[in-house]
Amino acid sequence: MTFVFAFFVGGIICAIGQLLMDYGKLTPGHTLSTLVVAGAILDGMGLYEPLINFAGAGATVPITSFGNSLTHGALAEAERHGLVGVLTGMFEVTSSGISAAVVFGFIGALIFKPKGNVD
């Protein structure tokens, strides 16, 4: 049943993003930002962790999880180090994923050649 819950929760999150673009007339960048902020707000209210426990990858793979990670790290470090922890906590939790994206993107750019303009 975990796979079914993950499928439905992840699908609902993606459907919300698609509806924001189709009916809200938001650009992909605005939709991305909205979903990240929504994940951050849900984590700040203590609602995202139960969603992760319920849906697993259905809640950790979509972009809302990035907002959750930022807020979760900031709140955890704020308890330990105060105001400075808010700033360092966000980067501590998400740094490995962002670093991997930069490194693999660079390697991909070195290996593959872009196609020319198709007129």
From TrEMBL:
Keywords: Membrane, Transmembrane, Transmembrane helix. Coiled coil: none annotated. InterPro entries: Spore_V_AE, SpoVA. Pfam families: SpoVAC_SpoVAEB (PF03862). The chain crosses the membrane at residues 93-112. NCBIfam families: spore_V_AE. This is Stage V sporulation protein AE. It comes from Lysinibacillus xylanilyticus.
